[in-house]
From TrEMBL:
Designated name of the protein: Urea amidolyase
UniProt KW ATP-binding keyword: yes
Pfam families for the chain: CT_A_B
GO MF annotations, alphabetized: ATP binding; hydrolase activity
Biological source species: Alloyangia mangrovi
Keywords: ATP-binding, Hydrolase, Nucleotide-binding
């Protein structure tokens, strides 16, 4: 979860952005900002902010996790799991659900890029992601060891102190 390429699909508002801005979304290196929470994460582009031109006249409408809203100052925000239900900033693209954990868990300063994919690619990625999630319980193994098999047991600091059970006021 250190960043990388995030796959995106066009949103209902992608065409509000000029061709040059849409192309720039794929060629620009972004940095995950410290300004982030479960609602969204700011991504800072290398270079100039993104222009929204006439997009600021968008009427508030339903939004979804993964939408990339571009605020009036040109700052893109990727909406995350607990995003609001409606929004009025234009959305240049939508991060596919399979890639949302990567942006959510990327540390501040992580380098990110966006790449447009077809809806077919997005659906295939989602199916593969869900298959991986379904297989996780079968891949988990308990880590139970017999104390005799742990030669450095004292090095694990399993306790932080000792008490004989008596309480003394000092």
């Amino acid at each position: 979860f250190s960043g990388g390429v995030l796959r995106v699909v066009e949103s209902l508002q992608t065409r509000l952005f000029p061709d040059a801005q849409r192309a720039r979304l794929e060629t620009t290196r972004f940095t995950r900002d410290a300004r982030a929470n479960r609602m969204g994460a700011k991504v800072v582009p290398d270079g100039a902010p993104f222009g929204v031109e006439g997009g600021l006249s968008v009427v508030s409408e339903i939004i979804t996790p993964g939408d990339i809203q571009v605020t009036g100052d040109g700052a893109p925000f990727v909406l995350l799991a607990e995003c609001q239900t409606t929004g009025g900033y234009p959305r240049i693209a939508t991060v596919i659900p399979a890639d949302l954990p990567r942006i959510a868990q990327a540390p501040a300063g992580a380098e990110l890029r966006f790449r447009f994919v077809s809806m077919e690619e997005a659906l295939a990625a989602e199916a593969a992601y869900r298959t991986t999630l379904k297989e996780l319980p079968r891949r988990v193994e308990p880590l139970v060891r017999h104390p005799a098999d742990v030669p450095d047991l004292l090095g694990y600091k399993l306790v932080s102190g000792f008490s004989n059970g008596e309480h003394h006021d000092h």
